[in-house]
Amino acid sequence: MHLLKWLYPGMRFKRWLLLFAAGVLLTSIGLTIVFNYKYIDGVEEFIFRIVYTATGTYNYMVTNIVGFFVSFIGLMIMLIAMRMTIRSIITVLLPDSSEKLVDLIYEKRKLDRGPAITVIGGGTGLSVLLRGLKEVTNNVTAVVTVADDGGSSGRLRSEFGIIPPGDLRNCLVALADTEPLMEKLFQYRFAGKSELAGHSFGNLFIAAMTQVTGDVEKALMESSKVLAVKGRVFPASTAKIRLDATMQDGTVVQGESQIPLVHKKIKRVHIFPRVVEPVPSAINAIKDAEAIILGPGSLYTSIMPNLLVNGVAETIKRSKAVKIYICNVMTQPGETDGYTVSMHVKAILEHAGIGSVDYVLANNKPISPPLQDFYAKKGQYPVVIDEDEIHALGVGFVKADIINETNVIHHDSEKLAHNIMQMVYGLKTDTKRRKKRSR
């Protein structure tokens, strides 16, 4: 059964096996011509004598059966020889994976045929989604916010003049196909009271790689090689931007980390400088996407900064891809207090424009009363699904169980990926049906 797996559709192996067999056949014919047909006749006569001696009769079908049997044995020997040759090479290159080579190739080919998905956002929500998507497609790209000004990222940003690496690091680790130890290393945060205290190793690594290569995009590409990343990670812009918020009372708060602290209702967010150029690779990823995902993540401080970069929102609106917004499960104090699902969507449409969201995916799994009480003490409440108001915005709506409820509430990577893929393929099917009907 393991050998037959090499013949599965999409392995790109059968064509070379047939070519190898054709080469063996041509070589055999050539050798037969060189050494004369009489040797083949001798083999046939030898088979005739054995069969006649054993049975007392002879049927020429026996020769054909023996011929087919010999050919089958030859093909099996060729397949085994080729497999062992490849395995011998792979054992040197990937010693830990040589036993499951066929599974690795099959999985890689399957994932390579997955849809092109571009995810836009930041924070922990984005990395949660990426962990699920990398299991269903290799064609995933993360476009990440660079407005973070707090913690380790903020310190590196101010000290070295680079874009904040924290969200970029989380996305790289989420898409990594590497040893758990390497993941722990990149996420390791130094303790103590030294100047390194609070910094994560991954942030320092990206900062150092940026200094060495002189370009953050190249630094991310090289870092991706170290982590064997499935997919790509790009910042929305390489410009050093600041996120500001204008509140309902007219006051302006400067800095992404300061916005939630004032506990006022946000009217609109802005970036400073107002016009910054996007990373071309990020724009191309949006253009080439079959599905564009916004979130999950903080509405104003993780998703919006990307949409305010010059050209990003316009490219999303012009795209023919399926555009899905994944709504947060709980409200965020100082940012989305009292927000319903439609209010989240409306905020995106006000900042990015009509056509930036086609569908919203929201959680409908009930949250247990003890957890609701736990979050209520922190000022967080379940985001209410108001379907009529969502439809009034001209946006489609899908509700599903997309959370993992343990001692905390957070999105579930596998459930998110499953629902996203169902939406992407389901909407493709609907589009094809409509085209057939219109003919």
UniProtKB/TrEMBL annotation:
HAMAP family the record matches: Gluconeogen_factor
Protein name according to UniProt: Putative gluconeogenesis factor
Pfam families: CofD
UniProt keyword Ribosomal protein, yes or no: no
InterPro entries per record: CofD, CofD-like_dom_sf, Gluconeogen_factor
UniProt entry keywords in alphabetical sequence: Cytoplasm, Membrane, Transmembrane, Transmembrane helix
Localization in the cell: Cytoplasm
Membrane is among the record's keywords: yes
UniProt superkingdom: Bacteria
Coiled coil: none
GO cellular component: cytoplasm
Membrane-traversing stretches: 16-40, 60-81
Gene Ontology process terms (BP): regulation of cell shape
